[in-house]
Amino acid sequence: MNVMVVFGTRPEAIKMAPVVQALRQRSDAFETCVCVTAQHRQMLDQALSLFDIEPDVDLNVMRPHQDLFQITTAVLNGLKPVLEERRPDIALVHGDTSTTMAASLACYYLKIPVGHVEAGLRTFDRYYPFPEEMNRVVTDSVATLYFAPTGGARDNLLRSGASPSHVFVTGNTVIDALFYTLSRSADRLPLTLDPAKRLILATMHRRENFGEPMREICRAIRDLVDGFSDVEAVIPVHPNPAVREMVTQMLCDEPRIHLIEPQEYEPFCALMNRASLILTDSGGVQEEAPSLKKPVLVLRDETERPEAVQMGVVKLVGPHYARIMEESVRLLSDPAAYDAMARAVSPYGDGKAAQRIASILTHYHAGTLAELGDAEMTT
Ligand code: UD1
Ligand code: UDP
């Protein structure tokens, strides 16, 4: 079976790497072509090198200050000749980026089936997150096979009319990537930290948070570090110019706030492991941190990942100064409140999602999907 795996950004690379590895381990069953759009450049290359993935095709689309029109048209036009020449039996895409949506559309135009990894996530608010919610809806409309990370994602797909025989709950491949990385090393910190101090790890990059919301987030981080002399913060700063300008302007002269470059996945996992508290608007970090027993305050008003919120280990605080301060101060000062959130739960997977996806693909190709029954993950 010819499988083309298409992705373009850091989180897609981290989450598709286990799938590429699983397909390559079964070279008797799969001929695997990895096509990167390189919607991200440096951050994509960091993830590719960690997982030893050499792309077969690289569209190299990233431009500084790119906008949604540029990414979408560059991916569509770049993929057309690649898909026409290789005509895969199926193309696998991941998640909700512009690469995901444009690659799905390109496959649709050429009548090439699409398998959607991390299918079915929804906030049901078309502008939040923007443009990711619409990217998911379009991709799920085009897809033929759905690899849903959770039962909730599966239910969303079934409610929107996806064929039940083509929807599978596999777990999220991010947990495969996390376990793989932790098994190699989890203590290679990228900077020297004071062992006597607690660490707040923060990441942010969402378009909805550009401008004033990001200013409020930065103000809260600054005041938290000012208020607790035994706390320091690390922020790997996303290279998006809108993020970089604000974070640098607001936080560059605070001695206990370390602004660092985006980290390779291994040292970033070490930072998550070392953190006492994580503040983030990232999707992937919300999924990883509960497996590491780390409380997460999500800098967004809504999430398409409600499972960990329902379990009480992740809390939504939005990009709002007062809420961030209130919840962070509580967690940093009240051990009982902290312990209630610092529990190891893993609603997003058991580390075997990629193997399940490979197995489902062989049945799809053989026309024996019905034999699979319920491919629910067991956690
Ligand atoms: C993109 C995705 C978002 C995903 C995020 C993960 C879209 C529209 N957005 O947002 O869904 O959550 O990636 O991080 O698909 N840049 C670099 N080097 C890099 C990467 C980015 O310099 O390796 C800079 C460039 O100036 C680029 C800008 O960041 O133009 C924005 O990148 P883009 O992919 O458009 O948006 P993200 O905010 O990264
Ligand atoms: N991550 C990383 N280095 C960093 C920051 C994040 O490797 O400096 C990882 C993180 O562990 C997660 C993924 O990148 O797996 C999340 O990427 P991002 O927050 O950019 O995107 P999102 O998940 O929100 O789409």
Task: Give the arrangement of secondary structure elements.
Layout: E1 2-7, H1 10-25, E2 31-36, H2 42-50, E3 57-58, H3 68-86, E4 90-94, H4 98-109, E5 114-117, H5 132-142, E6 145-148, H6 151-159, E7 167-169, H7 173-184, E8 198-203, H8 212-227, E9 231-236, H9 241-251, E10 257-260, H10 265-274, E11 277-280, H11 283-288, E12 296-298, H12 306-310, E13 314-316, H13 321-333, H14 335-341, H15 353-366
Parallel strand pairs: 1-2, 1-4, 2-3, 4-5, 5-6, 6-7, 8-9, 8-11, 9-10, 11-12, 12-13
Helix pairs in contact: 1-2, 1-7, 1-15, 3-4, 4-5, 7-10, 8-9, 8-13, 13-14
Residues 9-11, 39-43, 62-66, 68, 71, 96-98, 131-132, 205, 239-241 line the site of uridine-diphosphate-N-acetylglucosamine (UD1).
Describe this structure in words.
Helix 5 (132-142) links the parallel strand 5 and strand 6. The strands form two sheets. This protein has a seven-stranded parallel sheet, with helices on both faces. By secondary structure, it is of the alpha/beta class. The longest helix is centred in the first third of the chain and has 19 residues, at 68-86. Helix 1 (10-25) crosses helix 7 and helix 7 (173-184) packs across helix 10. The model has no long low-confidence stretch (mean pLDDT 96). The protein is built from 15 helices and 13 strands. It starts with a strand and ends in a 13-residue tail after the last helix. It has helices spanning 10-25, 42-50, 68-86, 98-109, 132-142, 151-159, 173-184, 212-227, 241-251, 265-274, 283-288, 306-310, 321-333, 335-341, 353-366; strands spanning 2-7, 31-36, 57-58, 90-94, 114-117, 145-148, 167-169, 198-203, 231-236, 257-260, 277-280, 296-298, 314-316. Helix content is 45%, strand content 15%. The radius of gyration is 20 Å and the shape is globular. The structure holds uridine-diphosphate-N-acetylglucosamine and uridine-5'-diphosphate. The site of uridine-diphosphate-N-acetylglucosamine (UD1) has 24 residues, from helix 1, helix 2 and helix 3.
